[in-house]
Amino acid sequence: MVRLLVADDHPIVRQRLKELLQEGFPSAVLEVAGDTESLLSKALEDEWDIIISDLVMPGGGGLYAIKKIKEIKPSQLSIIISIYPDEQYASHAMNAGASAFLNKNNADDELIVTVKRLLEEVSESPV
How far apart are the first and last CA of the chain? Predict the structure, then answer.
């Protein structure tokens, strides 16, 4: 069973991401967070296959959270999602430890594909 944690400070965006993930992974365990503090708390107290976080949120944002999470869980997969352009922020996200960067404008088309790709990469990698 896939375990996904979704963090975004906008309830409508959070709900839409959750709906997309439920369509793509009907049996997934999905949890949500509305700010950086709750993201860090949930990310560190439980095990997640992938964490999907907004770039900018109250309390430090996704990049800050991913850096902190990676210090404790270096193999944690994560996707940073943002309204800001890929060319400006994708490299920052990857340098912070994110596994992928998605623009929110493309989330409907790319989120499920990206999650599946990351899960496949992990299942194919030697233990």
Answer: 19
Q: How far apart are CA 19 and CA 58, in angstroms?
A: 23
Write the DSSP symbol of residue 53: E
Using CA atoms, how far apart are residues 63 and 91, in angstroms rounded to an integer? 11
Q: Using alpha carbons, select from 37, 28, 30 the residue that is nearest to residue 15.
A: 30
Contact 23, 78 (CB under 8 A): no
Q: Check: pTM over 0.90? Answer yes or no.
A: yes
Helix then strand count (H, E) for the chain reads 5, 5
Report the alpha-carbon distance of residue 18 to residue 24 in Å, rounded.
10
Q: What is the mean pLDDT of each run of 10 residues along the chain (127 residues)?
A: 96 96 96 97 98 95 95 96 86 92 92 96 74
Dihedral angle over CA of 63, 66, 68, 69, nearest 10? 170
Rounded Cα distance, 105 and 97, in Å: 22
